[in-house]
Amino acid sequence: MSPSHADRSQAGRSRAAITGIGLLTPAGIGTKVCWDTVRNGTETMAAVDPLLWQVPAALSCRVPDFDGEALLDPVLARRTDRFSQFALVAAQEAVADAGLDPASWDGARVGVVLGNTTGGVETAEEQYAVLQAQGARFVSPLLLPKMLPNMVAGQLSAFVGATGPGMVVATACSSGATAIGVARDLLAADRYDVVLTGATDAIVTPAVVAGFARLGALSQRVDDPAGSSRPFDKGRDGFVCAEGAGVLVLEREADARARGVTPHAYVAGFGATSDAHHITRPHPDGHGTQAAIDAALRDADAVPADVGYVNAHGTSTLVNDRLEAALLARNLPHGPPVSSTKGVTGHLLGAAGAVEAAFTALALREQVVPPNVNLTDPEPTDLVLPTSPCHHSYDFALSLSAAFGGQNAVLAITSH
């Protein structure tokens, strides 16, 4: 049953203002450098990663020159895994960008909703090696505090004095988008006045990359690292594992305006679905993603013709890109531009949806569409796939995410 117009209008009023953005990706440390790199279409794929030398697809996209002890308190950095360090650094930037001061806010009205895939895998792999080589007595007592997926929310809550609800969402590669959608819903339910949301992942490790390689999901272009991530291109052969974090500060629009803040953009709609089909392959009809798009549009009180840009999931895998392109062409016949920023950053896995939501908000703010990098021979499609940055007038965009387990999440982001 379709919602009434009154219901749809009420849903549209539950949007959240994005007042702060913090990014840390293979494109750089900080929102400006990340966005400049993505907008300009500069690849970040590394040469063969020496840490992954045993893996056939030993490519990666890492955060450049990251030093947690230099960017955070050294003691805190030593007590946290890389995935938590990423989130803390990104959150510092997001809170400052929002013009907020944790020393003066009511912590009981500040919450944290973050996403990640598997927590501190780097720590887990390191300590398992210690266990095997030296025995249980030498395993670090910090193993669990550093490794557990929920620790990033706990660490960030303590870091900023947020004593409201804090949680971690884990829906694999749609974790970031799901976390933002859940945070928006809790903000609308008056559980928070301010929420720090987004996602982080640091699982470019030998075991994880070997697992993806065994699934046949990774690019084998070790002789052409810069061209290895090529969403929607006929020559694509898999994704490149990446790491990083994206944190957004969400507030109610009225609260942001009362502070004299002009939001970057607004989270106006959210849709989440499950394919209920296969643990790693998307449904061949794309019905789960379709349902998530429909739900996000309804939530935003919008229709397909309102969509002016799509930040696609666009993983550079054979199956995903073909199905996603067909789905978008079928459902958006008016032909809005579509791009996947994974051509620049690689696939940030659990952090991808959060980082790409931030890129979508920045694109809306600047009225630009970031390019599809390495797209030299598009697979036959009716999509508009720009290969250079282009200015474009629009006020409504979708950011799509999908994941192993058939979990889909779509965010509707508006400029006003």
What characterizes the major β-sheet? 11 strands, mixed
Radius of gyration: 20 Å
Q: Indicate the overall shape.
A: globular
Q: What percent of the residues sit in helical stretches (DSSP H or I)?
A: 25-40%
Strand content: 15-25%
- Give the domain tally: 2
Structural class of the helices, strands and pairings? alpha/beta
Query: Oligomeric status of the shown chains?
Result: single chain
Output the CATH homologous superfamily of the largest domain: Thiolase/Chalcone synthase
Domain Ketosynthase family 3 (KS3): 13-415
Keywords: Transferase
Family: Belongs to the thiolase-like superfamily. Beta-ketoacyl-ACP synthases family.
Pfam families: ketoacyl-synt, Ketoacyl-synt_C
Can you describe what's shown?
This protein is of the alpha/beta class and 416 residues long. It has helices at 5-12, 31-40, 68-71, 74-78, 82-97, 121-134, 143-147, 151-160, 175-188, 206-214, 253-258, 287-299, 318-331, 342-345, 352-366, and strands spanning 16-25, 28-29, 110-115, 166-169, 194-201, 244-251, 265-274, 309-311, 338-339, 368-369, 390-391, 396-401, 407-414. The protein folds into two domains: 16-258, Thiolase/Chalcone synthase (Peroxisomal Thiolase, Chain A, domain 1, 3-Layer(aba) Sandwich), CATH 3.40.47.10; 268-414, Peroxisomal Thiolase, Chain A, domain 1 (3-Layer(aba) Sandwich). Strands 1, 2, 3, 4, 5, 6, 7, 8, 9, 12 and 13 form an eleven-stranded mixed sheet that branches. A hairpin with a 5-residue loop joins strand 12 (396-401) and strand 13. It is globular, with a radius of gyration of 20 Å. Mean pLDDT is 93; it is low at 1-12. InterPro entries: Beta-ketoacyl_synthase (IPR000794), Ketoacyl_synth_C (IPR014031), Ketoacyl_synth_N (IPR014030), PKS_Beta-ketoAc_synthase_dom (IPR020841), Thiolase-like (IPR016039). It comes from Actinomadura fulvescens.
